[in-house]
Target: Dihydrofolate synthase/folylpolyglutamate synthase
Amino acid sequence: MSKTTPSQSSPLNDWLCYLEQLHPANIAMGLERVAQAANNIDLLNSNSKIILIGGTNGKGTTARCLEAMLLAQGYSVGTYASPHLIHYNERVRVNGQTLPDQSHVDAFYALDQGRGDVELTFFEYGTLGALWLFKQHAVDYVLLEVGLGGRYDATNIVTPYASVITTIDLDHKEYLGDTRELVGYDKAGIFRTNTPAIVGDLDIPHTVTDYGEEINAELILSKRDFHFTPLADGLRWQYGEHDLTLSQPAIPAQNVATALTVLARLNLLPDAELVKQTLAELQVEGRFMQLSQQPLVYTDVAHNPESARYLRTQLMRLKNQGFKIHALVAMLADKDKASVIDALSDVVEKWSCASLDGPRGERAEQLLTLLPAPHSEHSQVFSSVDSALQSLLPQQPKDTALIVFGSFVTVAAAMQYWQK
Model:
């Protein structure tokens, strides 16, 4: 395919195809190129206050919680997240809404005209495009979800008003290292001197606190400075003079506690009633999302051991209500598939496996070899999530909940099946 530059009147899809082939590497570590491109078009000179959100899991739900709480108080908010489920536009929201294709085209056109001879990856283009759009909309707050790690991620070119680490676990080991200490050090790279650095992880590696203390960041740590206690039907959050008991949220309580702590530290916490009302209305696509009541079907993006352990707690709630669990798993080949499956092995009665398309997609037959015995002998394999759902749903018993999980790609396929 040629590298003919699209125009400002070209469809968004033409731009996305063009951007995907611009840089030889999908991931290129380092900030010099992306910072130079940002400075070329004056992207870093903005009045918006930026909250950088890093972490292995929980970035999206923490950002969505922060977004909802800020919008409930009348602030304007820009939110950048990745990857998207179905449409690229999902990556950028202004005041809780996605933007039309032309807005993204305008952003990419401005970048292409202004970047000079700087080469950018697809993700770097998306990050700078989001910053361009937020500057155009002059939002009060920008919630910037870190893509990979922290220290060398494209988002780290900004000067944050506060930095957040949600959780720390092993993922992208080829880039970040194979210990939590190495991963934590990389993620701590989003901290800044004399700037709030809120860490929600429940077992914080020493490398995170060591680096934070070394640069004199204002560390606010889970289990030291703020606490959350799971309750039978909710959670209790405590930080400083704040002490709230809340109903069970639709997102992990740990991420709610982290988001509330960020808001409290920045003097942006709504009153207790508004907090409760906002949490009660909060839904995040693809995070233990119910697709159907009859048959009972959920979908979840869980794709690493930590997110699988959280999914297990959600499935245990269904088991305690008397449901059996049938898991349809489809994953990418470069994920820790064995650990993910193992985290759910004691809660799932029946397994099915589906293949994912694309160069990174894992084959169902390979997933089958990772299932615990005797499941590996009795489980079905399917060529796609779509074909699996077509086959499984008509025969699903009323006492069984089907969970479709393993990747953002898997969730997108399940959502599109339902939309059809």
User: Anything to note?
Assistant: The radius of gyration is 21 Å. Residues 43 and 131 are 7 Å apart (CA to CA). The chain has 16 helices and 17 strands.
